[in-house]
Amino acid sequence: MKDRxxxxxxxxxxxxxxxxxxxxxxxxxxxxxxxxxxxxxxxxASKYVDRISVHGRTTKQIYSGDVDRKFIYNLKKQANKxxxxxxxxxxxxxxxxxxxxx
Length: 102
Fold this sequence. Notes:
- The protein has helices spanning 4-17, 35-45, 69-78, 97-100; strands at 23-27, 51-55, 84-88.
- It is α/β, with parallel strands linked by helices.
- Strands 1-2-3 form a three-stranded parallel beta sheet, covered by helices on one side.
- It is globular and about 40 Å long.
C-alpha cells in the first residue's frame, strides 16, 4: 500500500501472465489521510483483478473502531463491473450479515 505505483504495475503484469482468476486483499488505507488514495488505487486495480477483498478499517485502526462500509459500497459502485468486491470486518453475529448487505 505504500508504493501504489509499483503495486499497480505488479497487478498489471500478473494479469498479463496469469490465466486463472486472481484477487487482492487489502484495507481501506494506511490511516485516515490515506483513504482517498487507496480508494483511487483500488478503482484502477479493479480493471486488472477478478476480486478485491477489503477490510473496512485502516491499517492504523487494526481491529478497533468502526468499519467504513460506505467505502466498500462506493468502491463496489465505481469498480470495474467484472471485478467482485467483497467487504469484511466488524461482523460479530451471523444474524447481522444480511443487514450489512443492504
